[in-house]
Amino acid sequence: MSLTSITAFMSMTLRVVIITFGSYALTDGLAAMLGLSLHRLGVPLSDAMLLSVLIAFLLFIAIIMWGFANRNSWKRPLLITIAAIVTKCFVSNIAHSVLS
Amino acid sequence: MNEKQQFRASMRWLHKWIGLILGALLFTVFWMGTLSVFDKEIDQWMQPEIRFNLSSKQIDVDSIVEKIKAMKPDDKLSSLLIYLPSKRKPYIEVNGRFKTSKIINERFHPETGESLGKSNSRAGSGFIYPMHYRLQGIQGLGYWFIAFATLFMMVLLVTGVVIHRKIFADFFTFRKHKKLPRATLDLHNITGTIFLPFHFLICLSGLTIFAGWYISLTSSITQSINNKDRTVELFYAADDYGYYKRPASEIPAEMLKLAPLIAQAEKIWANRYGENASVDRIDVNHYGDKNAYIEIRRHFPSNRTEAHSDSINFDGINGEILKDFVASPIRKIRTWLEGFHQIQFDHWPIRWLYFIAGLSGCILIATGFVYWISNRTDEKGHRELLNVRLVEALSIGSITGCIAATASLFVVNRLIAMSDANFDRSELEIKVFFCVWLFTFVHAVIRKSSAWLDQCWLIAALCLSAVLLNWFTTAFPFTLTSKVFWPVTGVDLVLILSTFIAIKCALRLKQPKQVESKEGVNSEINAALINFLDNTEKKDK
Amino acid sequence: MNLYLDAFLVILASILSFLGCGYLALAQQKHVNSVFGRGTQFTLKIPAMLRGWLLIAASLMICFTWNSIGFAFLFWFLLLSTTSLLITLVLCVKPAWLRFLFMCKFKSII
Fold first, then answer.
1. What is the mean pLDDT of residues C37-60?
2. Residues B215, B331, B276, B255: is their CA dihedral positive or negative?
3. 3-state secondary structure of B58
4. Which chains touch C (3 or more CB pairs under 8 A)?
5. How far apart are CA A12 and CA A71, in angstroms?
């Protein structure tokens, strides 16, 4: 095993892990955001969260397919991670006001 | 390559890798899920004491409560969970929890009220059904493995559609006579495209059962790191089915009888929906306390697909209605999906079609593996050194191995029944299951590709012995005097059919023996090694 | 409803769905070739599609008679998939059995 092939393998694995867990975190954040937006529009909270959770499963599929569409670049994993962090920070700030 | 072709190539890579990594787990989940369609019938097969039909006369539920209290006379009952009989589960099941935290789990005959004893086998609804949503032996981790596997199964389905270009042109095409990769790929494609909506909906509906909990894992993690983040509580609202809670008041009081409350609930639902409604689950909380409350649920209606849409909470002392939960129209989407997945409604033709569709899902996953392996095998049956052999052993163990292990479950159940010894029979069955499964993996590693053939014979032998043991230890079903008990005879017939299918597969797989000298094997390994080293040298340059 | 009536209606719906899927399969030229022999000159696209979808709709109507609407759609949907699979297997193993679907063409061949 040469050094280049090992580093290529490790970076591939790292990208796969980041895309997988990043997409999962991103759908978590997006589901919460979607639920809160629907709630703002007047839907009761349980119904809003319910709809957003069902849609989130479909969103996960789309994000995974998008993330792996070009598996050799670091652009997509990075974008997914940044989007996940942004949505989750955003949601945790709003969740307080809705829940209390 | 233009963008579309590049996207297809990436999706092919993704489909291949997800299939290889998760295929074994997905086959297990699909296989156990397919058997769970008939889990209650398997229960009746494995536990002969519950082989009776639902009777129209039913004993008073309150006398059952008195019996539970009488089982521990110097202890106070604190909560009760009662499952009323249904067509496929014709007995009353009660879980009672006492103040000293003792829990008793009893089953009662619905007509006479006599105790049927504790079940000595976990059988279908105790082992096979939970295995397909939480695995066994790894505590809560199983839920998460399966959740991820299901999400990625949906990714597999969608990527499969993307890479399969001729969906309608090849809809009815199965070229069985062609070479193995082409024939297997055809079978993989048809079971995938013909049952595509079913597979997709089954995966999606499986996830919706624990939806809020599954989606919010990362929010739970961030909450455990940072206590002020309460995002995960938002997801509790998604899982809200009208649960009602209030703490105990520590003041004793006289409890109401359950029977009039049940009648009242059924009347409310009958008026609301204009059809017969029967209660199937009763939760009594804080029994004997002033703040007692009784939840009466219609969890699995027998005549509609929706599950868990209605529940009424009564006050335990004066009978007033504390909360009358009716699913909102949006929540009915979720309850429809849950009912679609759990298929507890009373409709045996749909049940059989689910069984066939589930088997097609198992064939889908199995042919995926066989296609990958056969693509990397040349005509003489030579394979590369490590990775194909590894995947082959993994696939044989997880496909025919899993089937053989479940067949052994049936055999062991009947073998144990023949002995009177007093030990934990249910645990022994589980241990034998996993031992047989492990053995099939080891066998696959040793015997390589002949293991398919061997394990087909093993499955045939186990299925046949299970049926014969059942007829030996309990009654033979086709006598002139006794009526056929269809749930158990149905399982017998499926086992016999499996025997025939396994024997046919084994005869098909039998190939003429190839004369292989020792030098031949060594030279094959040498050639592969040289190939491998050549490739790595090329990469270095 | 009566058990025997239910069983009869299940079988009827299944047969209609099976024939319907058979006709839909014969809308494709390669299946016409395998059923009627290679080098067949005729195409059966329009009559096959027409008869196929008609029979499948008839199967759905039969399902409505003995089920509530929700169960009818669910059962019919699964039945469609199962009979498609059966047609695929018949086409693979013994395609000549499907010749009776178009009796006129069959008679002209004999």
1. 86
2. positive
3. coil
4. B
5. 8
> Which residues of chain A are within 8 Å of residue B330 when distances are taken between CB atoms?
43, 47, 50-51
Q: Write out pLDDT tens, residues B256-268.
A: 888 999 999 999 9
Within 10 angstroms of residue B498's Cβ, the number of other Cβ atoms is: 19
What residues contact residue B243 under an 8 Å CB cut-off, 6+ apart?
none
Q: Is B176 on the interface with C (CB under 8 A)?
A: yes
Kindly determine whether residue B340 and residue C89, on different chains, have CB atoms separated by under 8 Å.
no
Q: How much is the average pLDDT of B389-410?
A: 93
The rounded distance, in Å, linking the Cα atoms of B217 and B237 is: 15
Q: Side chain identity at B80, as an amino acid letter?
A: L
- Record the pTM: 0.90
A80 and A23 Cβ atoms separated by less than 8 Å: yes
Please, is B13 exposed, middle or buried when counting C-beta atoms within 10 Å of its C-beta (0-12, 13-18, 19+)?
middle
- Give how far C20 is from chain B: nearest CA, Å: 13
Does residue B348 sit at the C interface (CB-CB below 8 Å)?
Answer: no
Give the DSSP letter string of A64-82. HHHHTTTTT-SHHHHHHHH
| Locus of tokens 């046949």 | B464
Q: Please tell me whether residue B113 adopts helix, strand or coil conformation.
A: coil
B155-202, pLDDT tens digit by residue?
A: 999 999 999 988 888 889 888 888 888 899 999 999 999 999 999 999
Quote the DSSP letter at residue B137. S
Tokens of B427: 């645990």
Confidence category of residue B522, pLDDT binned at 50, 70, 90 = very low
Determine the straight-line distance between the first and last CA of chain C, rounded to whole angstroms.
Answer: 45
Structure tokens at B20: 């290889």
Residue C8 in contact with partner chain B when CB distance is under 8 A:
no
Residues of B in contact with A32 (CB under 8 A): 219, 231, 234-235
> Binning pLDDT at 50, 70 and 90, where does residue B514 land?
very low
Per residue in B217-257, pLDDT (tens digit) is 888 888 888 777 788 888 888 888 888 888 888 888 888 88
A-chain residue closest to B537, CA distance: A2
DSSP state of B449: G
How far B81 CA lies from chain C's nearest CA (Å)? 30
Nearest by CB to residue B172, choosing from C74, C79, C88, is C88
pLDDT above 60 for B139: yes
Q: Residue B530 has what pLDDT? A: 56
pLDDT value at B516 more than 50? no
B155, B222, B334 ranked by CB distance to A65: nearest: B155
**Taking the mean position of all CA atoms in its chain, how far away is CA B10?**
32
Please tell me which residue of chain C has the smallest CA distance to B177. Answer: C92
Residue of B nearest to C8 (CA): B349
C28 contacts B172? CB cut-off 8 A: yes
Chains C and A touch (3+ CB pairs under 8 A): no
Closest chain B C-alpha to A10 CA, distance in angstroms: 16
The residues, ordered by sequence, that sit 6+ positions from B287 with a Cβ below 8 Å of its Cβ are B76, B77, B78, B79, B80, B255, B316
DSSP for B475-535, written as a single string: --S--SSSPP-HHHHHHHHHHHHHHHHHHHHHHHH--PPP---HHHHHHHHHHHHHHHHHH
Nearest Cα of chain B lies from the Cα of C84 at a distance, in angstroms, of 7
ipTM: 0.93
Over the stretch B314-341, which tens digit does the pLDDT of each residue have? 998 888 999 998 888 889 999 999 999 9
Minimal C-alpha gap between B353 and chain C (Å):
6
pLDDT band at C106 (very low <50, low <70, confident <90, very high): low
Question: How does pLDDT run across B1-44, given as a tens digit for each residue?
Answer: 688 888 999 999 999 999 999 999 999 999 999 999 999 999 99
Q: How far is CA B339 from CA A38, B145, C70, in A?
A: 26, 23, 12
